[in-house]
Amino acid sequence: MASKIAIIITSTRTPRLGPNVASFVHKLLTPLAQSSSATLSIVDLDTFKLPVYDEPVIPANVPARGQFIHEHSKRWSAEIASHDAYVLIVPEYNYGVAGSTKNAIDYLKNEWDGKPAAIVSYGISGAKIASEQVKGSLEGVGLRVSATRPQLAFSGGVGPDAFLAIGEGNLGEATRKEWEEKHTEEIIQSFKEILDALANPVEKKKN
After folding, report:
1. Whole-model pTM above 0.85?
2. Which domains are delineated in the chain?
3. What is the pLDDT along the chain (207 residues), one digit of tens a residue?
């Protein structure tokens, strides 16, 4: 049975570069996914319109001891539960993880638990801080995080490509070329680690 792997755009602000980064990653990973009988799909967090967590039940208790009552929570839960693994596309804002990213992770527990995930972060200097923070949060909800975590910086640092990304949500050609040359191999490696984790599942912990 083919594994279903989601590439998740975790930024929700406007403008945002996340969709372009997701498309870039999707294009790189598609040949390997096809040869591995895996299906890739892009999931855009913005379409779920998640408020700051507003359920009366804590995520760890769903579904064994309670149920979500809001449609946005049910949709997000069903989407994440439908995939076997994830590639999170993570921005860094003001030297930290975006609130939308953290909130989306915290909405769920059992839907994530035991599954593999990779983190691809992006920002002026590659989003190292956000990548570290997201790694801790994902491991906290039981995800198996790939050791290879690509960190994509804008070409020239604080320069034209950074302003293009931040101001318009567009990926500059210099940055795209730099990412292709410097990060293609590690993006593919992070995905290979997901595939390896899928081939070697661990027993899901019981609450």
Report:
1. yes
2. 3-199 (3.40.50.360)
3. 799 999 999 999 999 999 999 999 999 999 999 999 999 999 999 999 999 999 999 999 999 999 999 999 999 999 999 999 999 999 999 999 999 999 999 999 999 999 999 999 999 999 999 999 999 999 999 999 999 999 999 999 999 999 999 999 999 999 999 999 999 999 999 999 999 999 998 876 555
Can you say how many angstroms the Cα of residue 24 is from the centroid of all Cα atoms in its chain?
Answer: 14
Phi, psi (rounded to 5 degrees) for 182: -100, -25
Q: How many helices (H) and strands (E) does the chain have?
A: 6, 7
Please enumerate in sequence order all residues whose Cβ is within 8 A of that of 178, keeping only pairs 6 or more positions apart, or say none. Answer: 155
Cβ atoms of 128 and 156 closer than 8 Å: no
CA distance 58 to 106: 10
